[in-house]
UniProtKB/TrEMBL annotation:
Provenance organism: mine drainage metagenome
Name assigned to this protein: Transposase
Length: 183
């Protein structure tokens, strides 16, 4: 699971990001809550920028135009070890638009995570956009909220919505019981 919240750091407004599961809780303090920030945190202190098939696929899915993608493919370096080197690489390739640089950077960070075997990592969140990477899933509460916001047009719809909500919470209860006593 992952979440972030506003927090004061060194006398400035910043953010704290929590990444964890049943066995681990990790907290990181930064001054950004962007997708680049989150991907950098997932790199766990070993940040590099890698152009590979996974990175290029992401860039295409995010609507990065063909010209910047072709420039990245023709670049002589496929792995760059630090942010300054990456920024200089984008400059050399003529990728100057902020949106293009952001998508390329996100893709290159995802390329690094893919090279480390993390493509199947499930990121469970509250649906904040910065966390919508890799295998994204909503937490139970936020999944149920989507159902709760549906507006029924008639009594049959209302009953259908209530049945789905009951099924969701029934599944949740079954999973909690299974966790306590696996069969």
């Amino acid at each position: 699971t992952v979440d972030d919240s506003g927090a004061r750091h060194q006398g400035r407004n910043g953010y704290v990001t929590q990444i964890g599961n049943a066995f681990l809780a990790w907290f990181g303090s930064t001054f950004s809550k962007s997708r680049i920030n989150f991907l950098t945190l997932l790199c766990a202190g070993q940040v590099c920028y890698r152009i590979n098939e996974y990175a290029l696929k992401y860039m295409g899915e995010q609507g990065l135009p063909a010209a910047p993608i072709q420039a990245l493919l023709k670049g002589t370096e496929s792995v760059i070890d630090d942010a300054a080197g990456w920024e200089a690489h984008l400059d050399r390739l003529g990728i100057h638009l902020e949106r293009h640089r952001r998508i390329a950077t996100e893709g290159a960070l995802l390329g690094t995570l893919a090279a480390r075997g993390l493509t199947d990592l499930v990121v469970v969140s509250d649906d904040a956009g910065q966390f919508n990477v890799l295998q994204h899933a909503l937490c139970w509460i936020h999944s149920e909220r989507l159902i709760h916001t549906m507006l029924p047009l008639n009594e049959d719809h209302r009953q259908d919505i209530e049945r789905v909500r009951d099924q969701l919470w029934g599944l949740y209860a079954d999973l909690k019981a299974y966790k306590l006593k696996p069969r």
